[in-house]
Amino acid sequence: MRFLAHLDLARTVHRALSRAEIPIAFSEGFNPHPRAGFGPPLTLGVEGLEEWVDLILERDMAATEFLERINGALSPGLGFSRAFQMPRRSPSLTSVIQWAGYRVEPLTAPAVTPKSVEEVLSSEKLEIMKKSKKGHKLVDVRRRIGTLDLDGTTLLAQLACGPEGSLGIVDLMVHFTGLEGPAIISGYRVMREKLYVAADGRPVEIASETDVSTV
Amino acid sequence: MNVELQQKIEQLLPWVDRPARYIGGEFNSVIKEPAGKLRFALTFPDVYEIGQSHMGLVILYHLLNEQEWIWCERAFLPWVDMEQSMRREEIPWFSLESCTPLKDMDVLGFSLPYEMLYTNVLNGLDLAGIPIHRQDREEEDPIIIAGGPATYNPEPVADFIDIFVIGEAEELVLELCQIVHRQDLTRNQKLELLSRVPGLYSPATVEVRRRADGSIESFDSQVPLPVMKRIIGDVDQAFFPTKPLVPFLQTVHDRANLEVHRGCVHSCRYCQAGMLYRPQREKSLETLTRQGTELVKNTGMNEVGLSSLNTPDHTQLVPLIDNLNKELKDQKVSIGLPSLRVDSFSVGLADSLNKAKKTQITLAPEAGSQRLRDIINKNITEEQILNTVKSVLDAGWRELKLYFMIGLPGETDDDILEMADLFGKIKSLSRGYPGRPLFITTTLSSFVPKPHTPFQFVAQFPKEVLEERIRILRKRVDPNRVKLRWRDFPLGEMEAAFSLGGRELGPVIERAWQLGCKFDGWTDHFKYDLWVQAFQDCGVDVSGLCYRDKTDETVFPWEVVSCGVEKDFLWRDLQAAWDSKSTPNCFFDKCSACGVSADFTC
């Protein structure tokens, strides 16, 4: 499923909601859309282990009932693991999610070395090439790295993914390895493990409604 | 699941465009335990997004998988980027469900909806590691079958296909599978048995006898010819999958397709589908209401397409739309009509279905002059066209898309000038209406003479003539008011060649494929110069195929098979065309004795 593009995933979830007869609300207007808000898009080829979706329903539904219904309407490889109710008018996911936690395990490509992790952590500045509408440009992304750690050969990283700038895990791995983006995806198992909101400037896991609604 | 191959494939996916084309796993896709099963692969010689929206493929996939003893999987041709990677890594063409190399299947079933896929069939077989020539296949190779509209002239690909399924495969594919699944027979014995099944055509059983000038004299056959098509008698009770697979990717027809009837009662003389799918067979209101409702509930799709060759002909269409609206009112589902007739009734229907967005409406008058519309038996007058446009404007549309053909039999420069006049009349009609001015987009496709139609006897106009007519038209049409688009005429010439040619084209297709032709139906991949070279290298004359008139004495390559419509009728109907005589609608009006009723119940 990691090769599903963001829009394909969204359409797949919309259709699953409809099959599961979840009373999803629709936007007003001539061309109504289901009111489902997705978190930051996953890079094609990166596994999402804990992604979040905001759903606005037309009537209350117990989380257990929701999970049972929706998971019966999804194909293997996609599933909802948790659900909880949010207060009305909560801010959207994309406006509150600030950090993402990644896990990168080498498959066929060499592991990131402790020395290169040290180098990044001890420097003030980390410039990488980012694609923009007007071609490529150098951007300083040092402040977009929250934590960076090695657990054996596995790289663990918390990277910014909020409205004030983000750093993709593939871009960071390109910096570490000098490989092209696709080679990162085929040479490593790249997972997004968690999404975090920021509370007092620190990443906090989304665990219950209070985490999000107090932001 | 072939895990080893799957892992190798996954290694390639980060490098290719739209990797979801190659992952399978869609909702309602079918996974089975393979032991003891007949392994069938539906092979579509084009990319996923095109093949997966092909209704015939979806019906057969689920029909075959209903059988406990069959596992039917799918394989779409990899796009050029993926193919290149697969060849580099020596990964063979594989099935989506289990990543099984297609060489290990029992049957490969190619869909051939149009002719320009032939090089892709060769490329696919080669990528699968299966010999491209049927004569070179051995005991362990799968049996290669093909079906679909293009196989009503099977001869251009007769060197490459073991068995052709003539007609509606739903009717006979299980008979075929039972023979292939027999363990007591060799491959050749199976092919021999299959060649005797009504509706199956085995090119190995037929020798084409030719005269010195290359024209066909007769066929030497071990089986009775022609092979008559097989069709579903009772479409109302026939199998129809209401739990179809739901693609992840957006396919070209990304909606829940509900087939309302098969066949068409009009007798447009250029239209091959209208001849092939006779007689028209309707599904009942009850069946359609139930199937449409189940389709939406089981797929979660938000549009139902009521599909057929001419949906407004369905006698229960209005009640059907009412019923579906009632049943699905909570689902936010829209109902779409893929084809509209040029009449106010159709426009009224489209209006009631699209209260909200009035983006664009499409009408197909097909020819600009009354004389030509009579020749092609379109049976609409200019007054009807203008009245239909009035309904379009009354309903609020301001973008009109018109389909025409260019190079129709009997066409002259005057007919082209009349087309320009028709645009003028439509424009002046729209002047009194409020809102934005009417914008007209016109798509011109080049006429291709098709087998089993009255125009099979008629030569195509050379592409230089068509190009000149486009120049004439462009001089007369204000580009700010009418946008003109036309398809590549060289492509139209090749389509005619492969529609009308016989076994002499086998080496040409093979040569073109060796020269690098594939995905010829994609304008940006169509390489005309390579095709010209392939014809030259093989000593086959394109103009002899496309640009020469034929007579009722001509023996056509496709006479080995029949759709029920008789050659006598086609010849008679061509004379009627030249006399501008109409052939009536055979459902509401009278029978024209096309021959179909001799073999099938109309």
Molecular structure report:
The complex is a heterodimer of chains A (215) and B (602). Residues 210-215 of chain A have low confidence and may be disordered. Chain A folds into two domains: 6-85; 94-205, Alpha-Beta Plaits (2-Layer Sandwich). Chain A has helices spanning 6-19, 63-71, 93-96, 114-122, 169-177, 181-187, 209-213; strands spanning 36-38, 47-48, 53-55, 97-106, 127-132, 135-140, 145-151, 154-162, 165-166, 188-199, 202-205. Chain A is of the alpha+beta class and 215 residues long. In chain A, strands 2, 4, 7, 8, 9, 10 and 11 form a seven-stranded mixed sheet that branches. A two-stranded antiparallel sheet of chain A has the order 1-3. Helix content of chain A is 27%, strand content 30%. Helices cover 35% and strands 14% of the residues of chain B. Chain B has 21 helices and 19 strands. Among the domains of chain B are: 3-228, Rossmann fold (3-Layer(aba) Sandwich), CATH 3.40.50; 255-339 and 564-602, Transcription Regulator spoIIAA (2-Layer Sandwich). Chain B has helices at residues 3-12, 48-51, 55-65, 80-88, 118-128, 169-180, 187-194, 272-276, 285-299, 317-327, 344-353, 370-375, 382-395, 413-429, 463-476, 489-500, 505-515, 528-537, 542-546, 567-578, 596-599; strands spanning 38-44, 70-76, 107-111, 143-147, 163-165, 200-201, 206-210, 216-221, 227-228, 256-259, 261-262, 281-282, 303-307, 334-336, 361-366, 399-406, 439-446, 482-486, 561-562. With 602 residues, chain B is an alpha/beta fold. In chain B, helix 5 links the parallel strand 3 (107-111) and strand 4. In chain B, the strands form six sheets. In chain B, strands 2-1-3-4-5-6 form a six-stranded mixed sheet. In chain B, strands 15-16-17-18 form a four-stranded parallel sheet. In chain B, strands 10-13-14 form a three-stranded parallel sheet, covered by helices on one side. Chain A binds chain B through residues 1, 3-5, 8-9, 11-12, 14-19, 21, 26, 30-32, 44-45, 73-77, 108, 181-186, and chain B through 10-15, 18-20, 22-23, 25-27, 29, 246, 248-250, 296-302, 331-332, 356-357.
